[in-house]
Design a protein that fits this description.
With 335 residues, the protein is α/β, with parallel strands linked by helices. It has eleven helices and twelve strands. The chain has two domains: 227 residues, Type I PLP-dependent aspartate aminotransferase-like (Major domain) (Aspartate Aminotransferase, domain 2, 3-Layer(aba) Sandwich); 102 residues, Aspartate Aminotransferase, domain 1 (Alpha-Beta Complex). Helix 1 packs parallel to helix 8 and helix 2 crosses helix 3. The radius of gyration is 21 Å and the shape is globular.
Protein backbone atom coordinates (compact mmCIF):
# COMPACT_ATOMS: atom_id res chain seq x y z
CA UNK A 1 0.00 0.00 0.00
CA UNK A 2 3.08 2.26 0.23
CA UNK A 3 4.01 1.83 -3.42
CA UNK A 4 4.71 5.19 -5.13
CA UNK A 5 2.30 4.43 -7.98
CA UNK A 6 -0.72 4.58 -5.67
CA UNK A 7 -0.30 8.37 -5.73
CA UNK A 8 -0.99 8.45 -9.47
CA UNK A 9 -4.62 8.57 -10.56
CA UNK A 10 -5.17 6.61 -13.75
CA UNK A 11 -8.92 5.97 -13.89
CA UNK A 12 -9.94 2.90 -15.85
CA UNK A 13 -13.63 1.91 -15.93
CA UNK A 14 -12.88 -1.82 -15.58
CA UNK A 15 -9.98 -1.35 -13.15
CA UNK A 16 -6.20 -1.46 -13.57
CA UNK A 17 -5.02 -4.10 -16.03
CA UNK A 18 -2.47 -5.41 -13.50
CA UNK A 19 -5.28 -6.08 -11.02
CA UNK A 20 -7.46 -7.77 -13.61
CA UNK A 21 -4.55 -9.91 -14.78
CA UNK A 22 -4.01 -11.05 -11.18
CA UNK A 23 -7.67 -12.05 -10.92
CA UNK A 24 -7.49 -13.90 -14.24
CA UNK A 25 -4.44 -15.80 -12.95
CA UNK A 26 -6.29 -16.67 -9.75
CA UNK A 27 -9.33 -17.94 -11.68
CA UNK A 28 -7.07 -19.92 -13.99
CA UNK A 29 -5.51 -21.67 -10.99
CA UNK A 30 -9.02 -22.81 -10.14
CA UNK A 31 -9.52 -24.24 -13.62
CA UNK A 32 -11.45 -21.35 -15.17
CA UNK A 33 -9.86 -19.46 -18.05
CA UNK A 34 -10.91 -15.80 -18.32
CA UNK A 35 -9.42 -13.04 -20.45
CA UNK A 36 -8.50 -10.02 -18.24
CA UNK A 37 -10.42 -7.90 -20.75
CA UNK A 38 -13.59 -9.68 -19.59
CA UNK A 39 -13.11 -8.77 -15.93
CA UNK A 40 -14.69 -5.72 -14.29
CA UNK A 41 -13.63 -4.52 -10.83
CA UNK A 42 -16.19 -3.30 -8.31
CA UNK A 43 -15.97 -2.26 -4.66
CA UNK A 44 -18.10 -5.21 -3.52
CA UNK A 45 -20.30 -8.00 -4.82
CA UNK A 46 -23.28 -5.88 -3.76
CA UNK A 47 -22.09 -3.19 -6.14
CA UNK A 48 -21.54 -5.86 -8.79
CA UNK A 49 -25.20 -6.88 -8.47
CA UNK A 50 -26.18 -3.23 -8.75
CA UNK A 51 -24.15 -2.82 -11.94
CA UNK A 52 -25.65 -5.97 -13.45
CA UNK A 53 -29.24 -5.07 -12.58
CA UNK A 54 -28.62 -1.69 -14.23
CA UNK A 55 -27.14 -3.46 -17.25
CA UNK A 56 -29.81 -6.11 -17.74
CA UNK A 57 -33.04 -4.58 -16.45
CA UNK A 58 -35.43 -1.72 -16.92
CA UNK A 59 -37.64 -0.66 -14.00
CA UNK A 60 -40.25 -3.34 -13.37
CA UNK A 61 -38.24 -6.15 -14.95
CA UNK A 62 -37.67 -9.38 -13.01
CA UNK A 63 -34.71 -11.44 -11.81
CA UNK A 64 -35.05 -14.97 -10.48
CA UNK A 65 -33.44 -15.50 -7.06
CA UNK A 66 -33.03 -18.69 -4.99
CA UNK A 67 -35.01 -19.47 -1.84
CA UNK A 68 -33.73 -20.07 0.77
CA UNK A 69 -30.76 -17.76 0.35
CA UNK A 70 -29.18 -14.58 1.61
CA UNK A 71 -31.89 -11.88 1.88
CA UNK A 72 -29.72 -9.09 0.46
CA UNK A 73 -30.82 -9.87 -3.12
CA UNK A 74 -34.32 -8.54 -2.53
CA UNK A 75 -33.00 -5.22 -1.24
CA UNK A 76 -30.48 -4.83 -4.05
CA UNK A 77 -33.09 -5.61 -6.71
CA UNK A 78 -35.63 -3.24 -5.20
CA UNK A 79 -33.06 -0.43 -5.02
CA UNK A 80 -32.77 -0.79 -8.82
CA UNK A 81 -36.59 -0.88 -9.25
CA UNK A 82 -36.30 -4.55 -10.22
CA UNK A 83 -38.67 -7.25 -8.98
CA UNK A 84 -37.06 -10.36 -7.40
CA UNK A 85 -38.98 -13.57 -8.19
CA UNK A 86 -38.07 -16.65 -6.11
CA UNK A 87 -37.35 -20.17 -7.26
CA UNK A 88 -36.99 -23.13 -4.88
CA UNK A 89 -33.99 -24.90 -3.51
CA UNK A 90 -35.37 -28.28 -2.45
CA UNK A 91 -33.97 -30.65 0.18
CA UNK A 92 -34.24 -34.44 0.05
CA UNK A 93 -31.13 -35.41 1.98
CA UNK A 94 -29.17 -32.96 -0.17
CA UNK A 95 -29.96 -29.57 -1.65
CA UNK A 96 -30.75 -29.11 -5.32
CA UNK A 97 -32.39 -26.54 -7.60
CA UNK A 98 -36.07 -27.31 -8.18
CA UNK A 99 -35.86 -26.80 -11.95
CA UNK A 100 -39.66 -26.86 -12.53
CA UNK A 101 -39.95 -23.93 -10.12
CA UNK A 102 -37.37 -22.05 -12.22
CA UNK A 103 -39.18 -22.61 -15.50
CA UNK A 104 -42.55 -21.74 -13.98
CA UNK A 105 -41.10 -18.48 -12.60
CA UNK A 106 -39.86 -17.31 -16.01
CA UNK A 107 -42.00 -14.56 -17.53
CA UNK A 108 -41.68 -12.16 -20.49
CA UNK A 109 -40.01 -9.71 -18.07
CA UNK A 110 -37.38 -12.12 -16.73
CA UNK A 111 -33.93 -10.67 -17.40
CA UNK A 112 -31.56 -12.83 -15.30
CA UNK A 113 -31.27 -15.89 -13.09
CA UNK A 114 -29.22 -15.48 -9.91
CA UNK A 115 -27.41 -18.54 -8.58
CA UNK A 116 -25.12 -18.76 -5.56
CA UNK A 117 -22.48 -21.50 -5.44
CA UNK A 118 -22.16 -22.54 -2.71
CA UNK A 119 -25.39 -21.01 -1.54
CA UNK A 120 -25.62 -19.05 1.70
CA UNK A 121 -26.79 -20.54 4.05
CA UNK A 122 -27.50 -24.01 2.60
CA UNK A 123 -23.90 -24.61 1.54
CA UNK A 124 -25.02 -26.27 -1.71
CA UNK A 125 -22.96 -25.97 -4.90
CA UNK A 126 -24.35 -25.59 -8.40
CA UNK A 127 -24.12 -28.92 -10.22
CA UNK A 128 -23.08 -29.33 -13.85
CA UNK A 129 -26.49 -30.73 -14.86
CA UNK A 130 -28.24 -27.81 -13.17
CA UNK A 131 -25.99 -25.34 -14.95
CA UNK A 132 -26.71 -27.00 -18.29
CA UNK A 133 -30.46 -26.81 -17.63
CA UNK A 134 -30.31 -23.15 -16.61
CA UNK A 135 -28.14 -22.26 -19.60
CA UNK A 136 -30.64 -23.85 -21.98
CA UNK A 137 -33.27 -21.28 -20.94
CA UNK A 138 -31.44 -18.57 -22.87
CA UNK A 139 -31.48 -16.15 -19.93
CA UNK A 140 -28.32 -14.44 -18.57
CA UNK A 141 -26.94 -16.10 -15.43
CA UNK A 142 -25.55 -14.08 -12.52
CA UNK A 143 -23.47 -16.48 -10.43
CA UNK A 144 -22.27 -15.46 -6.97
CA UNK A 145 -19.16 -17.59 -6.37
CA UNK A 146 -17.63 -15.80 -3.39
CA UNK A 147 -17.61 -18.95 -1.22
CA UNK A 148 -16.54 -21.31 -4.03
CA UNK A 149 -13.00 -21.86 -2.70
CA UNK A 150 -14.26 -23.32 0.60
CA UNK A 151 -15.56 -26.82 -0.20
CA UNK A 152 -16.06 -29.22 2.69
CA UNK A 153 -15.77 -32.27 0.45
CA UNK A 154 -15.01 -33.24 -3.15
CA UNK A 155 -17.84 -33.75 -5.63
CA UNK A 156 -17.19 -34.54 -9.33
CA UNK A 157 -20.74 -33.41 -10.24
CA UNK A 158 -20.03 -29.87 -9.08
CA UNK A 159 -19.78 -27.02 -11.60
CA UNK A 160 -16.39 -25.34 -11.17
CA UNK A 161 -17.97 -22.05 -12.25
CA UNK A 162 -21.04 -20.88 -14.11
CA UNK A 163 -18.56 -19.56 -16.67
CA UNK A 164 -18.44 -23.18 -17.88
CA UNK A 165 -22.04 -22.89 -19.15
CA UNK A 166 -22.05 -23.71 -22.85
CA UNK A 167 -25.54 -22.57 -23.84
CA UNK A 168 -26.09 -19.49 -21.70
CA UNK A 169 -25.97 -16.29 -23.79
CA UNK A 170 -24.33 -14.38 -20.94
CA UNK A 171 -22.77 -15.40 -17.64
CA UNK A 172 -21.52 -13.04 -14.94
CA UNK A 173 -19.44 -14.76 -12.22
CA UNK A 174 -18.85 -12.72 -9.07
CA UNK A 175 -15.96 -12.96 -6.64
CA UNK A 176 -14.10 -10.77 -4.20
CA UNK A 177 -11.39 -10.34 -1.59
CA UNK A 178 -13.95 -10.38 1.21
CA UNK A 179 -14.25 -14.18 1.18
CA UNK A 180 -11.41 -15.28 -1.09
CA UNK A 181 -8.68 -13.66 1.03
CA UNK A 182 -10.67 -12.79 4.18
CA UNK A 183 -10.07 -9.08 3.48
CA UNK A 184 -13.49 -7.40 3.41
CA UNK A 185 -11.96 -4.07 4.43
CA UNK A 186 -9.97 -3.81 1.17
CA UNK A 187 -13.19 -3.38 -0.84
CA UNK A 188 -12.31 -5.15 -4.09
CA UNK A 189 -14.62 -7.50 -5.93
CA UNK A 190 -15.05 -8.45 -9.57
CA UNK A 191 -17.33 -9.58 -12.35
CA UNK A 192 -15.97 -12.12 -14.85
CA UNK A 193 -18.04 -12.15 -18.03
CA UNK A 194 -18.62 -15.21 -20.23
CA UNK A 195 -21.05 -16.37 -22.89
CA UNK A 196 -21.53 -15.85 -26.61
CA UNK A 197 -18.87 -13.52 -27.98
CA UNK A 198 -21.23 -11.01 -29.59
CA UNK A 199 -23.34 -10.76 -26.43
CA UNK A 200 -20.22 -10.45 -24.27
CA UNK A 201 -18.86 -7.59 -26.38
CA UNK A 202 -22.18 -5.74 -26.18
CA UNK A 203 -22.45 -6.31 -22.42
CA UNK A 204 -18.89 -5.10 -21.79
CA UNK A 205 -19.53 -1.97 -23.83
CA UNK A 206 -22.52 -1.11 -21.68
CA UNK A 207 -20.77 -2.14 -18.45
CA UNK A 208 -17.96 0.25 -19.31
CA UNK A 209 -20.41 3.16 -19.26
CA UNK A 210 -21.84 2.05 -15.91
CA UNK A 211 -18.47 1.41 -14.28
CA UNK A 212 -17.04 4.67 -15.61
CA UNK A 213 -19.84 6.57 -13.88
CA UNK A 214 -18.68 5.31 -10.46
CA UNK A 215 -14.94 4.42 -10.54
CA UNK A 216 -15.45 3.11 -7.03
CA UNK A 217 -12.40 0.86 -6.47
CA UNK A 218 -9.51 2.65 -4.76
CA UNK A 219 -6.16 2.82 -6.55
CA UNK A 220 -4.12 1.56 -3.53
CA UNK A 221 -6.23 -1.59 -3.24
CA UNK A 222 -5.94 -2.25 -6.98
CA UNK A 223 -2.15 -1.98 -6.94
CA UNK A 224 -2.00 -4.21 -3.87
CA UNK A 225 -4.38 -6.81 -5.31
CA UNK A 226 -1.70 -9.11 -6.81
CA UNK A 227 0.01 -9.30 -3.42
CA UNK A 228 -3.29 -9.85 -1.60
CA UNK A 229 -4.09 -12.77 -3.89
CA UNK A 230 -0.57 -14.21 -3.76
CA UNK A 231 -0.53 -14.18 0.05
CA UNK A 232 -4.06 -15.45 0.66
CA UNK A 233 -2.86 -18.99 1.34
CA UNK A 234 -2.31 -18.45 5.07
CA UNK A 235 -5.85 -17.22 5.70
CA UNK A 236 -7.26 -19.79 3.28
CA UNK A 237 -5.64 -22.73 5.08
CA UNK A 238 -6.65 -21.47 8.52
CA UNK A 239 -10.25 -20.91 7.42
CA UNK A 240 -10.44 -24.27 5.68
CA UNK A 241 -9.19 -26.09 8.78
CA UNK A 242 -11.64 -24.28 11.05
CA UNK A 243 -14.63 -24.79 8.74
CA UNK A 244 -13.96 -28.51 8.39
CA UNK A 245 -13.38 -29.00 12.11
CA UNK A 246 -16.53 -27.11 13.06
CA UNK A 247 -18.64 -28.96 10.50
CA UNK A 248 -17.33 -32.27 11.85
CA UNK A 249 -18.16 -31.15 15.40
CA UNK A 250 -21.71 -30.23 14.39
CA UNK A 251 -22.17 -33.57 12.70
CA UNK A 252 -20.81 -35.55 15.64
CA UNK A 253 -22.63 -33.62 18.37
CA UNK A 254 -26.04 -33.90 16.68
CA UNK A 255 -25.97 -37.69 16.16
CA UNK A 256 -29.03 -39.14 17.91
CA UNK A 257 -30.39 -35.69 18.79
CA UNK A 258 -33.73 -34.19 17.67
CA UNK A 259 -31.51 -31.35 16.35
CA UNK A 260 -30.19 -32.61 13.01
CA UNK A 261 -27.57 -31.18 10.67
CA UNK A 262 -28.68 -30.72 7.07
CA UNK A 263 -26.19 -31.67 4.39
CA UNK A 264 -23.65 -28.91 3.76
CA UNK A 265 -21.14 -29.03 0.88
CA UNK A 266 -19.19 -25.83 1.44
CA UNK A 267 -19.18 -22.22 2.56
CA UNK A 268 -19.20 -20.69 6.01
CA UNK A 269 -22.63 -21.68 7.38
CA UNK A 270 -24.62 -24.75 8.36
CA UNK A 271 -28.30 -25.41 8.94
CA UNK A 272 -29.83 -27.25 11.88
CA UNK A 273 -33.36 -28.63 11.69
CA UNK A 274 -35.15 -28.46 15.05
CA UNK A 275 -38.35 -30.01 16.40
CA UNK A 276 -41.51 -28.05 15.64
CA UNK A 277 -42.46 -28.04 19.31
CA UNK A 278 -41.43 -24.38 19.18
CA UNK A 279 -41.20 -21.88 16.36
CA UNK A 280 -37.69 -21.22 15.15
CA UNK A 281 -38.01 -17.69 16.50
CA UNK A 282 -38.78 -19.14 19.93
CA UNK A 283 -35.87 -21.57 19.66
CA UNK A 284 -33.47 -18.80 18.64
CA UNK A 285 -34.56 -16.56 21.51
CA UNK A 286 -34.40 -19.46 23.93
CA UNK A 287 -30.81 -20.27 22.91
CA UNK A 288 -29.85 -16.60 23.19
CA UNK A 289 -31.53 -15.74 26.48
CA UNK A 290 -31.05 -19.02 28.35
CA UNK A 291 -27.87 -20.46 26.83
CA UNK A 292 -25.97 -17.39 25.50
CA UNK A 293 -25.85 -18.97 22.04
CA UNK A 294 -26.48 -16.80 18.97
CA UNK A 295 -28.04 -18.34 15.87
CA UNK A 296 -30.24 -17.00 13.05
CA UNK A 297 -33.77 -18.32 12.55
CA UNK A 298 -34.40 -19.83 9.13
CA UNK A 299 -37.03 -17.29 8.17
CA UNK A 300 -34.25 -14.68 7.89
CA UNK A 301 -33.24 -16.63 4.77
CA UNK A 302 -36.78 -17.40 3.59
CA UNK A 303 -36.93 -21.08 4.46
CA UNK A 304 -40.35 -22.21 3.33
CA UNK A 305 -41.24 -24.07 6.54
CA UNK A 306 -40.09 -24.47 10.16
CA UNK A 307 -38.04 -25.01 12.22
CA UNK A 308 -34.47 -24.24 11.16
CA UNK A 309 -31.60 -22.22 12.60
CA UNK A 310 -28.38 -21.15 10.91
CA UNK A 311 -25.00 -21.62 12.58
CA UNK A 312 -21.82 -19.81 11.59
CA UNK A 313 -18.86 -22.14 11.02
CA UNK A 314 -16.42 -19.25 11.55
CA UNK A 315 -16.53 -19.37 15.34
CA UNK A 316 -13.44 -20.58 17.15
CA UNK A 317 -13.48 -24.36 17.44
CA UNK A 318 -13.87 -24.46 21.23
CA UNK A 319 -16.59 -21.79 21.12
CA UNK A 320 -18.60 -23.64 18.49
CA UNK A 321 -18.23 -26.96 20.31
CA UNK A 322 -19.55 -25.43 23.52
CA UNK A 323 -22.37 -23.64 21.71
CA UNK A 324 -23.49 -26.81 19.92
CA UNK A 325 -23.39 -28.72 23.20
CA UNK A 326 -25.74 -26.14 24.76
CA UNK A 327 -28.08 -26.21 21.77
CA UNK A 328 -28.27 -30.00 21.74
CA UNK A 329 -28.79 -30.13 25.51
CA UNK A 330 -31.65 -27.62 25.25
CA UNK A 331 -33.31 -29.43 22.36
CA UNK A 332 -32.89 -32.86 23.98
CA UNK A 333 -34.53 -31.56 27.15
CA UNK A 334 -37.37 -29.56 25.54
CA UNK A 335 -37.78 -30.93 22.00
Amino acid sequence: MAQPQVLSYEPSPFGLLSAREAIAKQLSAGGVQVDPGRIVLTASTSEAYSFLFKLLCDPGDEVLVPRPSYPLFDHLAQLEAVRPVPYRLAYDGGWHIDLPSVTSAVSPRTRAIVVVSPNNPTGSYLKREELEALGSLGIPIVSDEVFASYPLRDDPSRAASALRAEDAPLVFALGGLSKLAALPQMKVAWIAVGGHDARVREALGRLEVIADAFLSVGTPAQHALPEFLASRGVARKALDARLRTNCHTLRERTVGSPASLLDVEGGWYATLRLPRTRTEEEWALRFLEEDSVYVHPGHFFDFEDEAYVIVSLLAREATLAEGVARVVSRVDAEG
